[in-house]
Design a protein that fits this description.
This protein is mainly alpha-helical. The protein has 2 domains: about 250 residues, MetI-like (MetI-like fold); about 55 residues, no CATH class. Helix content is about 80%, strand content about 0%. It starts with a helix and ends in a 5-residue tail after the last helix. This is Peptide/nickel transport system permease protein. It holds the Pfam family BPD_transp_1. It is a multi-pass membrane protein.
Length: about 300
């Protein structure tokens, strides 16, 4: 398969996957009982509201969230609107969903991107050196640190860092500490995978041939890197998505960052369907988009994988 054909195939897969995820999310959200509405009506009943007043409250609440239309009509309208980036207004925040989601995405990207890049560079460098120096003190310490990082949750590391720094300044709270927590969450997997892949490469005949020719360790490392970068890239995309979905919610709630994780949690608590689906689009874009980018990069770096 040519690179162009692979690109078109992956793009088609991405379109189908995006709409499938959005459809499942829409169904889960709209078919889940609204606890906020129940709580509001229960409070009104306890306060002595009449049945007519409670019904009016219910109709106002449902209309404000666009839930007074048949299910199929709401779904079709949403598919068209989300395709045209007309995501509507957030019922809980009173602002356009695209504006709210865009601002939250920037807040998350401020710490997620530096943390992921740092983990990838450090993980690959440490993994290759650890494989080259198998059995050395550096290798043993690196593997020990990897096992420790695997067992430590990122939000706990962030909490400890904030306590040690006495809260820190705005940059520390919104970029350095959460970025470090993301890097720690990704680093262990990067080191482990890079080392395991590189061990086989350092035992290969071509490495022994290069050493016999007098090539330096740095030159050999560069050639080993070219052969291990494809699986490492694939793992990076998968782990980055898991960190965004699982860790971002806890990290941002703990630190007080109004990013995508915090926004998803707040939208779910308020049963704000447009906002939930808008936040879901960001997660889908990161997950599917990252997978496509890594797949295409792998095909470009290694034509044998096409």
């Amino acid at each position: 398969m040519s690179f162009r054909s692979r690109l078109l195939a992956r793009f088609g897969f991405a379109v189908v996957a995006v709409y499938l995820v959005i459809t499942l999310t829409f169904l889960v959200v709209v078919l889940t009982p609204d606890t906020n509405l129940r709580g509001m009506l229960g409070t009104a009943l306890w306060s002595g509201a009449s049945p007519a007043e409670m019904e009016q409250m219910r109709e106002t609440y449902i209309a404000a969230r666009g839930r007074d239309q048949p299910l199929y009509r709401r779904y079709l309208d949403w598919v068209v609107n989300i395709t045209l980036f007309r995501w509507g207004l957030s019922a809980s925040m009173g602002e356009p969903v695209t504006q709210v989601v865009g601002a939250a995405t920037l807040e998350t990207a401020k710490y997620l991107v530096p943390g992921a890049v740092t983990a990838w560079i450090a993980g690959v460098a440490v993994g290759i050196r650890s494989a080259r120096e198998r059995g050395s003190r550096f290798d043993r310490l690196g593997r020990l640190a990897t096992y420790v990082l695997f067992g430590l949750p990122g939000f706990w590391l962030a909490a400890v860092a904030l306590v040690a720094l006495d809260g820190g300044g705005p940059l520390t709270r919104t970029v350095i500490v959460p970025g470090g927590a993301v890097a720690a969450a990704l680093l262990a997997g990067q080191v482990s995978l890079t080392r395991s892949r590189s061990v086989d490469e350092f035992d290969a005949d071509y490495v022994r041939y290069l050493r016999a020719k007098g090539l330096t360790d740095r030159g050999i490392d560069r050639r080993v890197f070219r052969n291990v970068v494809v699986p490492v890239l694939s793992m990076t995309a998968a782990e980055l998505f898991s960190v965004l979905v699982l860790s971002a919610v806890v990290l941002e709630s703990l630190i007080g960052i109004e990013g995508v994780g915090w926004l998803t949690y707040e939208a779910t608590q308020e049963n704000d369907i447009p906002l939930i689906l808008g936040a879901t689009m960001v997660l889908v874009a990161v997950g599917i988009g990252g997978s496509i980018v890594c797949d295409l990069a792998s095909a470009w770096l290694d034509p044998r994988s096409r």
